[in-house]
Amino acid sequence: MRNKFLIVSFLFFSLPVLADLPLTIEDLITDKGKLKLDMSLAYTNSERDGLETAGPLVVQTGATSFVTLPTKIGELKSNTDVLIATVGLRYGLTSNAEIYTRASYLYRDNRSSGLSGIEDETTDQLVDSWLGLNYQFSQDNETPALLGFVEAALYEKNIKDTSSGKSTLFGMTTYHAIDPIVLSLTTAYRWNQARDDGDISYQPGNYLLINPSLAFAVNDRITLTGGLQWINKKEDRYNGTVQGFRRTSTDMTLGFGYGVAKGNTLNFSFNTAASGQNRADLRLNWLYAF
Hints:
It is a single chain. This protein is mainly β. The chain has one domain (about 1-290): Lipocalin, CATH 2.40.128. It is about 5% helix and about 65% strand. It has one helix and 19 strands. Strands 1-4-5-6-7-9-10-13-14-17-18-19 form a twelve-stranded antiparallel β-barrel. It is globular and about 60 Å long.
């Protein structure tokens, strides 16, 4: 049974909102009155060619969470490295519900060439913070387990200004364990409202995410996972005017999980674009239960 416990834990370590559940199916939500520390490090590299029209660079910090980084207009060719560190806390409200918060800090190195020559620009800053709720509606028994989540942005850094309460994400995850395999499906929708950024109004495009996944427990400590991730992202708007067009993309996901002990788990995941984008994401996550 420990294989079954670890494999479910790893599936949810891949999800930023349901991120990093413990090693037992019976304890998907943080125990009432208990705390968990949730830390992750995400790295992405992207390369762009051609004339940019302010299309943002979207960095994935988890299976359903993203940091949107607006880019400059007029870049002809660019290569960007982004490193994002995220620290979060989860607190058990009841046996079926937990509240959580997280904040992400970014380091970005962007090399670009255009009509003005070659430039190398670095940035480091707090990019966002969120407050959310996870709720377990049903266990995995005669029917698959069902969990829901909702979160709202407390702080988001735009190009010039910051905003609060302008982005909301909600979704659900269902899974079914057939020891030593777990099948899961996560869907999420992010709704972005317009926010002031300097002398313009900026509204990032809403997006829909669908992520089917399969995990396999190699032994009582190691789990392997793989799956697909499909994203449908609407156009961004500047001063109410559409910039760019609706984009879809498909990523392949691979992962490796190691259960150090109950409540102490490490997970590594890799996303590579199969279509629609030119980037790769690496993420390392650590969850520790107090």
